[in-house]
């Protein structure tokens, strides 16, 4: 099946194939080429492939092709280890199903109020994507019916095992019809996952995709966390400041190549598109222009740039993050060729940080975060180029006439040569000021939280989970409260089960979970002070190892309906308001804010075209 070179060769439903073409997917990845045909036939699939190889489309496209949009009951259930992945999968499916009339996909996960999910389930959805804990909650309530389910997908099964959800996954599988189709995807195949595959999959097609990625040692890799400015503004700042010869800018779709190239041309850059819609003659003409220096920037898709070998390319910009790690390595391989060093810059939206970490693991190299050039950086660079133009003109032009002109002017008007030169410089740069009036890059609180989360998640694994005796210096959650939960050693609970359940269902990072003490019939866990009432009530109903947590403040007995109130404080700390003298309620610490249930040759810079008269 790996010989498949286009999605049109796969027997996908026409509306799904139309969406694929509009998105700009040009050729299926190996996992997609291997998985789509058997899933279309109704076969079970056991896929072993790394994150970032295109697994979501591998199961979404064939299963969407098989559902009946006219029927408003769950036909496909996708289990994902985290709410972030559940949302990502649901959004991808909605995109692929844009031309399926009446289609609805519903993500269900902890940290969100039950009521919106209950209303959505009553309205009906053909596909449900959820975390194991929240799916079980709905099964117990009777709000989620699986009796007419056609297919189940276990996405990142080994991650669900690591987070302690594997018992929940088995319980859910046992509640599904015996004739349903099952697709299990996992980066690794530990014994517990292999046992589940043997128990619940029927004669599966086994697919193993070996990562072809490798390190690219000749290329310096950096990323910019998209925040505060739009990507086009960020791109032009980078083009202004970086010492570069030629650039290739990667986007996801053919349409985007033309749109971005036009915008760069409008800003004065020598740019052109390169995509699969261009015939061979046009493509060769564009590449030839890039080679001889008539173009400095090519905006391309992955497929169009394959095999592109232009020694001038010193920089690769991943304007859109690639769908898989293979594509990333192919992209940055366009620079650093013929023994030269190269630079690769990756634009990463906060929600795409998971893919960033996947790329790092696949390439075996750390990608450093970069600071976006400021107004001062751009002014310095423009001034440097301005001085260089003066030097080149002094060395190459006959300026005798202009010497006489300036000498005459200075004598007639009693001005110094320096003042006249300054005035001439001002006139020359008037249309494009050396000191640009640009908004400074800003980092909002959302951006700061994203940056902190990114930094923490990129720390060595042994440092990610806090030592129970102390907290990181950067930890801002303040004091903790000890809570009792009604699950213990006798029920088979382990710390990872508790951490996984609370982190997912309360929507908080595991580093905010403190000391855990497991007794025979119960356990205690330290959590940040200031837990919102909604989260507290939700955690009371969460199930772990077949037991409801029934969380309560340690020492106060069972049945507590609310978390402890916080004492008034009269200071401001870290931007979080505290209680005032009148005893107004303090805001929850940051660890709980996001968890509230939701309501709703010589290097040169990129050449600009000379101004027209």
TrEMBL record:
- Tell me, in a sentence or two, what this protein's role is: DEAD-box RNA helicase involved in various cellular processes at low temperature, including ribosome biogenesis, mRNA degradation and translation initiation.
| Record field: compositional bias (Basic residues) | 593-613
For this entry, the protein name equals ATP-dependent RNA helicase DeaD
PANTHER family recorded: ATP-DEPENDENT RNA HELICASE DEAD (PTHR47963:SF8), DEAD-BOX ATP-DEPENDENT RNA HELICASE 47, MITOCHONDRIAL (PTHR47963)
**What are the entry keywords?**
ATP-binding, Cytoplasm, Helicase, Hydrolase, Nucleotide-binding, RNA-binding, Stress response
Q: What class of enzyme is it?
A: hydrolase
Q: What is its main location?
A: cytoplasm
Which protein family is it in?
A: Belongs to the DEAD box helicase family. DeaD/CsdA subfamily.
Spell out the GO cellular component terms annotated for this protein, sorted alphabetically and separated by semicolons.
cytosol; ribosome
Under Enzyme Commission nomenclature, its number is 3.6.4.13
Q: Any idea which GO molecular function terms this record carries?
A: ATP binding; ATP hydrolysis activity; RNA helicase activity; RNA strand annealing activity
Q: Which GO terms describe its biological process?
A: cellular response to cold; ribosomal large subunit assembly; RNA catabolic process
Q: Where is this motif: Q motif?
A: 5-33
Q: Which residues form the DEAD-box RNA helicase Q domain?
A: 5-33
- In the UniProt record, does the keyword RNA-binding occur? yes
Q: Where is this region: Disordered?
A: 434-483, 555-613
| Helicase ATP-binding domain sequence ranges | 36-207
Residues covered by the Helicase C-terminal domain = 234-378
User: Which Pfam families does this one have?
Assistant: DbpA, DEAD, DeaD_dimer, Helicase_C
Give its localization.
Answer: Cytoplasm
Q: Which reaction does it catalyse?
A: ATP + H2O = ADP + phosphate + H(+)
Q: Does the keyword ATP-binding apply?
A: yes
* Protein species of origin: Acidihalobacter ferrooxydans
Instruction: List all Basic and acidic residues biased stretches.
Output: 442-471
């Amino acid at each position: 099946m790996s010989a498949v070179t286009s999605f049109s060769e796969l027997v996908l439903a026409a509306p799904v194939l139309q969406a694929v073409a509009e998105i700009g997917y040009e050729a299926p990845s190996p996992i997609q080429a291997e998985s789509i045909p058997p899933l279309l036939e109704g076969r079970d699939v056991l896929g072993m492939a790394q994150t970032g190889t295109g697994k979501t489309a591998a199961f979404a496209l064939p299963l969407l092709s098989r559902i009946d949009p006219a029927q408003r009951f769950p036909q496909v259930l996708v289990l994902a280890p985290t709410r972030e992945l559940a949302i990502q999968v649901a959004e991808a499916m909605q995109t692929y199903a844009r031309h399926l009339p009446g289609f609805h996909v519903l993500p269900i996960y902890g940290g969100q109020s039950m009521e919106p999910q209950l209303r959505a389930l009553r309205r009906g959805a053909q596909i449900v994507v959820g975390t194991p804990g929240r799916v079980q909650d709905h099964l117990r309530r009777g709000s989620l019916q699986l009796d007419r389910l056609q297919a189940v997908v276990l996405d990142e099964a080994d991650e669900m095992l690591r987070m302690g959800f594997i018992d929940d996954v088995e319980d859910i599988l046992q509640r599904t019809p015996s004739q349903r189709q099952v697709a299990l995807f996992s980066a690794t195949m530990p014994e517990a996952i292999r046992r589940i595959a043997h128990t619940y999959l029927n004669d599966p097609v086994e697919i193993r995709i070996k990562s072809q990625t490798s390190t690219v040692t000749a290329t310096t890799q950096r990323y910019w966390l998209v925040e505060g400015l739009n990507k086009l503004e960020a791109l032009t700042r980078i083009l202004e400041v970086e010492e570069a010869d030629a650039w290739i800018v990667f986007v996801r779709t053919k349409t985007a190549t033309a749109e971005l190239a036009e915008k760069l041309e409008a800003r004065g850059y020598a740019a052109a598109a390169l995509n699969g819609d261009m015939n061979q003659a046009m493509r060769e003409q564009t590449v030839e222009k890039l080679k001889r220096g008539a173009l400095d920037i090519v905006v391309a898709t992955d497929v169009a740039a394959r095999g592109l070998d232009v020694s001038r390319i010193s920089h690769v910009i991943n304007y859109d993050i690639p769908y898989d790690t293979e594509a990333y390595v192919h992209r940055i391989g366009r620079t650093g060729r013929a023994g030269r060093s190269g630079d690769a810059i990756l634009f990463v939206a906060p929600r795409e940080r998971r893919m960033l970490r996947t790329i790092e693991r696949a390439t075996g190299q750390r990608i450093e975060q970069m600071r976006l050039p400021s107004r001062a950086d751009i002014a310095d660079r423009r001034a440097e180029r301005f001085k260089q133009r003066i030097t080149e003109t002094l060395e190459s032009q006959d300026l005798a006439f202009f010497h006489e002109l300036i000498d005459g002017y200075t004598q007639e008007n009693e001005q110094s040569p320096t003042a006249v030169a300054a005035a001439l410089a001002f006139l020359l740069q008037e249309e494009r000021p050396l000191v640009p009036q640009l908004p400074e890059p800003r980092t909002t609180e959302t951006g700061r939280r994203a940056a902190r989360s990114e930094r923490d998640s990129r720390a060595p694994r042994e440092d990610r989970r806090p030592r129970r005796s102390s907290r990181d210096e950067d930890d801002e959650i303040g004091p903790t409260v000890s809570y009792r939960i009604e699950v213990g050693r006798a029920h088979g609970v382990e710390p990872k089960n508790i951490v996984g359940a609370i982190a997912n269902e309360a929507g908080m990072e595991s580093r905010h979970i403190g000391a855990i003490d497991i007794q025979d019939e119960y356990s205690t866990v330290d959590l940040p002070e200031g837990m919102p009432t909604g989260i507290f009530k939700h955690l009371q109903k969460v199930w772990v190892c077949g037991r409801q947590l029934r969380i309560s403040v340690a020492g106060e007995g069972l049945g507590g309906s609310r978390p402890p109130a916080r004492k008034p404080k009269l200071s401001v700390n870290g931007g979080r308001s505290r209680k005032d003298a009148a005893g107004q309620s303090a805001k929850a610490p940051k660890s709980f804010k996001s968890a509230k249930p939701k309501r709703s040759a010589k290097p040169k810079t990129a050449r600009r075209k000379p101004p027209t008269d």
